[in-house]
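Agenda item 2: NAP complex prediction
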Amino acid sequence: MKAVVIRTFGAPEGLEVVDLPVPAPGPGQVRITTEAIGVGGVDAVIRRATIGGLGLKEGHLLGSEAAGTVDAVGEGVDASWVGRRVWAFTGLTGAYAERAVAAVEDVLPLPEGLTATDAVTLGSSGVVAHFALDRARPAPGESVLVRGAAGSIGLSTVQLAAGRGAGAVAVTTSSAERGERLRDLGATHVLDRSGEGGADAPEGFDVVIDVVGGPGLPGIVDRLNPNGRYVIVGVVAGQPPADFGTRLLDGFRKSLTFATLSLDTVPNADRQKVRAAQFADAARGELRTVVHDVLPLVDAAKAHRAMDEGTVFGRIVLVP
Ligand SMILES: NC(=O)c1ccc[n+]([C@@H]2O[C@H](COP(=O)([O-])OP(=O)(O)OC[C@H]3O[C@@H](n4cnc5c(N)ncnc54)[C@H](OP(=O)(O)O)[C@@H]3O)[C@@H](O)[C@H]2O)c1
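Presented output:
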């Protein structure tokens, strides 16, 4: 089967199209014939080897989510899964391939009316947005800043924050045109990447949901209101400065909270419950998915170049 692996960590050119044996589903797993494969910011982070400690080797099959049809099941899995159209989280087993395997508990049937493309656009990122907001608990009327709103996590966060009754939903983004698209999804104030601009934007925020991290993080910590909650869910701009904690302590008298949120600590049953509800909302058009581009699987490096160049708004989807 055709697949895309990391031959060399770093630049998109390090991705290679290869021919791999079709995997057999192991005990507790299903195999799917992929129809749509999500290209996430997390894939770029893995490709650049920004996240340490994963122990990945050259030849790693990239990707973590795909949608398609179950074509085989492993030992202990009900055979009635075969033929069902599903979304699947493959984790580090990889998804940039014509077939992918996933644990059956990480698979979710697609509801009527939800395309495979929509499913991989929302599947992982929508739940990150949900649980990040759960952790920050914006009360109705409170102000929320979504930093890095143009990615698939940010686009869901903006919609969900608006739906939870936030008083203001400010976003950071790199262009006025993106700002207009974000307003259409519920943003009320559009700031530049450094958090400046935005006519009448609140000076401080009760909640920050941050996908970006990087050197600009301490300046955003400074913008928290008293009792403000900062939840970081991603590091697309790299790790923040090592001493950013001193900014939190400088704001000691504001009683600030800083949290990380990784889906790894959210019980799978909770993730799947929220995901199923979001899929149903998306099928009804109540939660919008934003697809930047649909490319052939063999163009995975092109998709990664677009991410590195910062031209992506929403999700790129690969089709085998
Ligand atoms: N917490 C979890 O469980 C979890 C799960 C999956 C993924 N993740 C993490 O989430 C991140 C990817 O999320 P995503 O796919 O939504 O993001 P993304 O699309 O890669 O990036 C989001 C946006 O951030 C802005 N941005 C990019 N570089 C920037 C920079 N240097 N400074 C300021 N803004 C910048 C860009 O928008 P503009 O150009 O408009 O500014 C970009 O569209 C990864 O770090 C991944 O590890 C976390």
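Discussion summary: The first helix runs from residue 41 to 47.
Owner for follow-up: CH.
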